[in-house]
Amino acid sequence: MSNLEREAAPSLCGGRGFVVAEPVRELLSPRHVKLGESSEVRRLLPNLGRRMVGAWCFVDHYGPDDIADEPGMQVPPHPHMGLQTVSWLHEGEVLHRDSTGSRQMIRPRELGLMTSGRAISHSEESPRSHARFLHGAQLWVALPDGHRHTDPRFEHHADLPVVTAPGVKATLILGDLDGATSPGTAYTPITGADLALSRGADVRLPLEPDFEYAVLSMSGEAHVDSVPVLPGSMLYLGCGRSELPLRAESDAGLMLLGGEPFEEELIMFWNWIGRSQEEIEQARRDWMEGSRFGEVKGYDGDPLPAPELPPTPLKPRGRVR
């Protein structure tokens, strides 16, 4: 899933001006966004006053949705540049197709990682015969300047490292955690982990003090650093932490997102990340003219048209230290 809003607005991301250099407890409420006729997601990033967590720049949480009598996810071909997409499921399955020729079914707790680089297009859909429930998260990682024009590629990793302690099982999605390293390709110092907490768990998770972190609640009742975090909300934690207290009132699912604060200034418009108005304008022309982003073969439907650019100039913002 991606940003399918027809009235897209630019997001001004990056820069140290948005970084809190000490531990905080900032609870972020989602914005509810309709996708298509019947789907709705809870958008946590970009959020009012909080644009990024490390290189993580886009977070949607969706479900659990009962799609037994519905087609489920149906996202037509659309473009990306300058970012990586991370597809993560707790329930259901999603068929990924892209313009490099990749075709892959993604299942719960398997990593679908697409690096757009200079340009890619893809589609995502529930298979015709699918599980009753669909529940997951779609996330983006901003690519740093030195890698944002790289060749597009898709990775699928079904066997991911797992870190365990009494009451918690952490599946490493991207980057590093407690000595484990994900096989997914990362271009900045980053952490992404799925945390399964058992009822009554009371643990402390090791963190990197130089990273900033946030925790997304997927399910259940959990306290993160003594703050209750309900499903579909996210707690921003700032920097300066060497460990994170977690306590579960019931079986709970969380996602830990973190990384070294991203210093570069960005423009995020629709499904593109760039550095200038001209880059975004060129990307829109290329997509609408059918060049550069390639073709997604096998999807039964037309690609998505790009939204109109806003009348005001797009400018990157943020304060670089």
TrEMBL record:
Fe cation binds at residues 78, 80, 122, 124. It comes from the Bacteria. Binds 1 Fe cation per subunit. Residues 193-292 form the Pirin C-terminal domain. Its cofactor is Fe cation. Residues 304-314 have a biased composition (Pro residues). This is Quercetin 2,3-dioxygenase. It comes from Streptomyces chartreusis NRRL 3882.
